[in-house]
Amino acid sequence: CRNLTFPESLPEVSIVFIFVNEALSVILRSIHSAIDRTPAHLLKEIILVDDNSNNEELKEKLQKYVDEVNAHKPGFIKVVRHSKQEGLIRSRVSGWRAATAPVVALFDAHVEFNVGWAEPVLTRIKENRKRVISPSFDNIKYDNFEIEEYPLSAQGFDWELWCRYLNPPKSWWKLENTTAPIRSPALIGCFIVDREYFQEIGLLDEGMEVYGGENVELGIRVWQCGGSVEVLPCSRIAHIERAHKPYTEDLTAHVRRNALRVAEVWMDEFKSHVYMAWNIPQEDSGIDIGDISERKALRKKLQCKTFRWYLVSVYPEMRMYSDTVAYGVLQNSLKSDLCLDQGPDTENIPIMYICHGMTPQNVYYTSSQQLHVGVLSPTIDDDDNRCLVDVNSRPRLIECNYAKAKRMKLYWQFTQ
Fold first, then answer.
1. Where do the Glycosyltransferase 2-like domain residues begin and end (predicted)?
2. Which fold has domain 13-240?
């Protein structure tokens, strides 16, 4: 990366930091690393979006710091304060609305920038404004602020639409160039985008709640609607994975609702996979996902491709489950409050357990008469789907492909 050269003329960037009850010291570390590690002629402004924090030091103390900076460089730091908590998704859109530079970088307020992070990003966006860029992330340990280097990765998701790191695609490895951009199906969360292009493709889905799923939706939308998503190995940013989540300790309900919005708007016949992964019936799910008519109209207006195209062309690693004919839980016919459960992960012995409907009790019955129990493996590289197998008249959970190759008894017939 040190040997790369970049154009002298690059677009300016507005850096947006979102926070709610973040430690002031952490916010200041983020600001100072942005200033220190971004060439002054490229950094137009820093925008702080306070999503209705109740931490007092984020009011007067933070404002005093901002005033001191702006006394030397008027208008360099802007503060946007919400009168009520909007959530991370709508806060990012607030930050975008306040930005004036041609390129906007949307980040959490607990990151630290590495040397030379900006030039690779701005070069790629200057070459093609329809690129949405993620840096490569490292970890900052929350207890001692030591930086832990992460391997280079693409960014994808599972069928519940939780984001996850992926191995870079084979096409990237064939280049034998570790500085080359990595094609990425989705985004982990923080990203950099051309300000006007972001508006053209519909910003973020403000009908979603809090956060979770919006980064996956953005990646899917960008690809299906003619853009691209990249991770840049030479743009490195370290991120604190906090022990305490400021919005809620359990995002599950929000991510589930947001995921169903994505499924209904963008995923066509494959929306069934999202419902299956969450173990929710497709009809009468009981979950109010809100009005999605505007998002559907956006897809039509942008003349976007199908989700099948996306799976084939962008995310071929994603494992499909179109052969699933039924899913839910298996209840004990003699005691209806007991369900089949995968039991402890390490033992591979299924058990009967009080029905709770969570992932360990998810059951998927395929057209080939296999019973998958537990989580759905998200990609073809994760060969860990487990099937219910009869081993010497005792049930076991064994990796499905292995059981099939060994001609084990893994076929089950149901009659109604």
1. 14-198
2. Spore Coat Polysaccharide Biosynthesis Protein SpsA; Chain A (3.90.550)
